[in-house]
Q: What sequence folds into this?
């Protein structure tokens, strides 16, 4: 009954034996050919959050370089299964891509395994500061976002605009980029008003839009008149904020289009800052070993103010002053606890 | 092969049925691919290439098939005992947690001994997570579909809690972003690889266990009791079998195999535990896909082997297809769904022919006997 | 802090949000009750919900007509139900597995359509709060029960209707007969196939509306995999409710209220790690079942294929 499976398997083995490693031996990248870039991402390229921020940056660089003839760009999206991502990374490397980007902090272990086997390929891993240089691996770049910086600026504005003295935060799980942003936000809010109440709800999921919305409702019920949140499921919370006329601060991508009347400002990621440097290094023959941080200072993080929102001039001035303070180092943000 | 008798031909047709069903599903998928402006030939070529194209691809397929087979074995036991276990995801997670705890705090034993103990710990973790729904069902009448769904969610949050806090990689405590992962297993604690690919010893362990589960179910008293309770609890009770105990046992064993799958994923593939907030990032949905694999294998431990390889191939090949022709991952999910629906629907023709063969062979008692031993719960339901 | 828990604001908040959260569960689980009472387990609820949610959102996004959105969501859900009926009734496929297949199909297809037709997350203005005059002015109770959107009222109205249909009508009798003893029902001239087609399609329709209640009722957005396991919880709630609409209502409210309770707990600073708080609804649902020790027997023919003339 299961014979056909056996037949299929036998065929497969035969085929495998007939053309040993056919697709493994990809041609080495010709020096004059286009730059070949592959990216592996956990969610979809249009998630309006983490994955999209990277994909948009790569497309922008591709355009700047002169289109697909100059830079080939391929992607694997929806690679939330760590093991699948590892297979994709290895496959891209064996196909001779020049730069393989593993866009997810959960992919680090896989890179550590794979990168030593492909010394001529540059890998990039985010978001982290670890290039595995300590382990003797020389071809992994690291990149991360100082998302606490924009979080801090958002927090300063939020505390200035809040009349009730209560602010609500909706987060996925208490870790990584989300935690950095929230820590920064809380610190910023407290810097304006030490007594302000910032309630944080971690809903335990990156996808549960309904629970994120209900978390927003809870905050509003508890008296919050300003909200913020991070990761792709917050779209539900933004809707609730709009319905209740409560202000919203965004991060990762611009969320203004979702609720133009209540989104005050967004911290927008621009990975091109880090990617440009990596690509320049690859051209020089350096394939890794350096960590890049996008922040307010180098323009990798951009504070985007919603023009349709009537932000009081003094609050905007304070926000810009704070941004400047973070850039010149007069404001330091204590995160990581 | 000698000349085909009529029965033989009909059996061959049965064997080819899933192939036709998969082909039909892929044909529907081809229409979708055309709509997306992608050549189906190119796409399916990439799928085949990604699953079987070379030694490395084949190894990836088998690596993917390993947890499906292990979970599937547990499902075979559960279904034979007439309980439904959709808690494979949670059981894998708990098994992995216990297994890695041992590997990260190893006693001073040689590597192989630590690995063996860790796999047993995984088995135990899954057994605990499976026994709870079994206990609740046997003694409190709590339906196991409900409890296993809930236990999946609880296991995920438990994992998130442990990986963020008590079990976090000490190196992560020093950086601000604090990736929720454990430390890495030392090299000596990794399952050895069979050939210079990612294919690891776990695949062989799974195949051996498939044979053992077959023996357990059909050649031991314990297996006989589980099956008896599954087929007819009332009669079993009169026969002096402790029905409650066997319900717990079926779910416990079922969970144990899923737990072992989780442990083997850690020791053979990932070498550490990482969470992205969901179970899928770690399990790759093997806790669910294993159910499908088991059913495609006719709920027979040995049949589950090729069925798991088939699904492993489909999953691995589909990812390759995404890479080569850049179709959205969503299409691949939808396509997987179609394959499942088409294959499970095609079963009807096999059953019909089987029945026709039977009625043709009423006078041949061996044929009837053969059917008796091959009958699956599905067949049983149809003919009852 | 803990004393805050008993303030009126918090209580009203918990109850109101519990009722909102319960809405999609109710539609989907009541639909599933009909299916299971007739002997069909549908594990594809989540997929039907996702396609329904997308259909409702897309139609509303392009036409601005909310009711048309609900209608199309219902039709899409019904079509998914029809396919499920063909597969499980005519082709006699194993129900649990075909359900998983339909779930995967709905999950992928809704995402694919979202990417191709919308491209990115958009918003619509969904059903507004329909405050019921007089009643909504009642202190506390008004805020909890009578200031919700119309799809919320619909979900709660569905419970007595479903109870009535199942227990007090000939149709309900036929459904139950088919689920308990299809052979006997068949010999009495009830078409098992027709009854099951009806319940499966009805289940799909309600699941589609459940999706609409999310995408254009509660959230006003569509996002990939936005149901995030909701459909599976709905199936679990059918078992919680012992295949009875009122039992499902209790289960849906319990699960949702505990969920909003844990959200409030985090806001009020209850010293519990967030992950442990998130576990609460799942743990409590099991515990309540254990304590109440209700032993309701499943429909005898559940998941069993029926074939005439044997």
A:
């Amino acid at each position: 009954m299961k014979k056909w499976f056996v037949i299929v398997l036998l065929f497969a083995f035969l085929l495998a034996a007939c053309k040993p490693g056919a697709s493994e031996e990809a041609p080495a990248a010709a020096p004059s050919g286009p730059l070949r870039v592959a990216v592996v991402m956990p969610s979809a390229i249009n998630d309006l959050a983490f994955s999209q921020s990277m994909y948009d940056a790569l497309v922008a660089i591709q355009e700047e370089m002169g289109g697909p003839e100059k830079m080939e760009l391929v992607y694997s999206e929806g690679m939330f299964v760590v093991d699948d991502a590892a297979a994709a990374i290895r496959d891209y490397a064996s196909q001779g891509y020049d730069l393989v980007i593993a866009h997810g902090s959960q992919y680090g272990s896989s890179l550590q395994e794979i990168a030593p086997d492909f010394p001529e390929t540059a890998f990039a891993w985010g978001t982290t500061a670890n290039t595995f240089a300590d382990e003797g691996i020389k071809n992994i770049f690291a990149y991360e976002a100082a998302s606490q910086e924009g979080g801090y600026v958002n927090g300063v504005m939020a505390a200035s605009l809040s009349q009730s003295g209560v602010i609500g935060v909706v987060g996925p799980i208490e870790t990584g980029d989300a935690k950095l942003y929230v820590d920064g936000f809380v610190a910023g809010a407290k810097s304006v008003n030490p007594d302000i109440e910032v309630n944080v709800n971690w809903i335990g999921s990156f996808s549960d839009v309904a629970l994120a919305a209900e978390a927003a409702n809870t905050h509003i019920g508890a008296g919050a008149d300003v909200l913020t949140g991070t990761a792709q499921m917050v779209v539900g919370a933004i809707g609730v904020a709009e319905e209740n006329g409560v202000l919203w601060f965004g991060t990762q991508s611009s969320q203004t289009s979702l609720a133009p009347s209540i989104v005050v400002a967004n911290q927008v990621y621009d990975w091109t800052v880090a990617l440009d440097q990596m690509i320049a290094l690859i051209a020089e023959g350096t394939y890794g070993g350096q960590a890049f941080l996008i922040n307010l200072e180098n323009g990798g993080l951009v504070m985007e103010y919603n023009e349709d929102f009537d932000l009081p001039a003094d609050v905007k001035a304070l926000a810009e002053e704070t941004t400047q303070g973070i850039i010149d180092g007069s404001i330091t943000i204590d995160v990581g606890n | 092969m000698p000349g085909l008798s009529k029965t033989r031909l009909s059996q061959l047709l049965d064997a080819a049925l899933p192939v036709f069903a998969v082909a039909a599903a892929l044909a529907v998928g081809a229409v979708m691919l055309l709509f997306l402006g992608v050549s189906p030939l190119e796409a399916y070529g990439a799928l085949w290439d990604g699953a079987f194209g070379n030694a490395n691809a084949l190894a990836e397929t088998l690596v993917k098939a390993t947890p499906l087979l292990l979970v599937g074995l547990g499902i075979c036991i559960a279904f034979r005992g007439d309980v439904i276990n959709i808690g494979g995801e949670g059981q894998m997670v708990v098994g992995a947690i216990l297994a890695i705890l041992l590997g990260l705090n190893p006693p001073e034993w040689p590597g192989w001994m630590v690995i063996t103990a860790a796999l047993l710990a995984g088995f135990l973790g899954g057994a605990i997570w499976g026994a709870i729904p079994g206990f609740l069902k046997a003694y409190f009448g709590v339906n196991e579909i409900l409890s296993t769904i809930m236990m999946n969610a609880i296991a995920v949050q438990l994992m998130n809690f442990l990986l963020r806090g008590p079990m976090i990689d000490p190196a992560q405590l020093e950086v601000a972003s604090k990736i929720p992962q454990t430390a890495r297993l030392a090299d000596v604690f990794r399952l050895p690889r069979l050939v210079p690919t990612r294919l690891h010893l776990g695949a062989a362990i799974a195949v051996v266990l498939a044979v053992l589960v077959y023996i357990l179910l059909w050649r031991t008293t314990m297996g006989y009791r589980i099956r008896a309770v599954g087929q007819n609890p009332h009669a079993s009770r009169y026969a002096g079998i402790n029905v409650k105990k066997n319900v717990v046992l079926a779910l416990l064993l079922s969970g144990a195999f899923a737990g072992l799958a989780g442990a083997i994923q850690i020791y053979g593939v990932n070498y550490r535990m990482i969470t992205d907030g969901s179970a899928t990032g770690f399990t790759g949905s093997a806790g669910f896909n294993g159910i499908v694999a088991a059913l495609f294998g006719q709920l027979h431990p040995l049949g589950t082997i090729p069925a798991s390889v088939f699904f492993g191939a489909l999953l691995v090949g589909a990812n390759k297809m995404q890479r080569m022709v850049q179709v959205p991952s969503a299409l691949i999910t939808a396509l997987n769904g179609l394959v499942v629906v088409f294959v499970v629907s095609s079963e009807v023709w096999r059953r019909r022919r089987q029945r026709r063969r039977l009625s043709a062979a009423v006078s041949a008692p061996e044929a009837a006997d053969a059917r008796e031993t091959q009958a699956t719960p599905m067949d049983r339901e149809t003919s009852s | 802090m803990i004393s805050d828990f008993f303030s009126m604001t918090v209580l009203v908040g918990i109850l109101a949000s519990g009722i909102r959260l319960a809405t999609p569960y109710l539609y989907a689980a009541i639909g599933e009750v009909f299916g299971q009472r007739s002997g069909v387990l549908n594990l594809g609820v989540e997929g039907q919900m996702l396609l329904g949610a997308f259909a409702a959102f897309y139609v509303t996004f392009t036409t601005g007509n909310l009711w048309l959105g609900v209608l199309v969501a219902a039709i899409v859900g019904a079509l998914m139900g029809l396919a499920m009926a063909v597969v499980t009734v005519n082709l006699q496929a194993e129900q649990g597995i075909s359900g998983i297949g339909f779930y995967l199909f709905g999950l992928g297809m809704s995402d694919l359509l979202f990417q191709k037709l919308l491209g990115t997350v958009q918003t619509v203005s969904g059903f507004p709060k329909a405050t019921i005059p007089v009643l909504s002015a009642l202190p506390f109770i008004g805020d909890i029960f009578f200031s919700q959107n119309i799809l919320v009222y619909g979900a709660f109205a569905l419970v007595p209707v479903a109870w009535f249909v199942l227990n007090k009508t000939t149709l309900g009798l036929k459904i139950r007969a088919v689920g308990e003893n299809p052979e006997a029902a068949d010999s009495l001239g009830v078409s098992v196939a027709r009854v099951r087609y009806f319940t499966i399609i009805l289940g799909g329709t309600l699941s589609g509306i459940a999706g609409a209640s999310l995408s254009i009722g509660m959230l006003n957005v569509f996002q990939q995999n936005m149901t995030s396991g909701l459909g599976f919880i709905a199936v679990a709630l059918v078992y919680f409710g012992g295949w009875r609409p009122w039992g499902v209502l209790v289960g849906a409210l319990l699960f949702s209220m505990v969920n909003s309770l844990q959200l409030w707990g985090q806001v009020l600073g209850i010293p519990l790690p967030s992950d442990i708080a998130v576990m609460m609804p799942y743990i409590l649902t099991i515990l309540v079942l254990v304590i109440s020790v209700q032993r309701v027997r499943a429909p005898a023919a559940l998941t069993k294929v029926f074939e005439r003339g044997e």
User: Anything to note?
Assistant: Residues 8-37 of chain C form the longest helix (30 residues). Chain C touches chain A through 40 residues (CB under 8 Å).
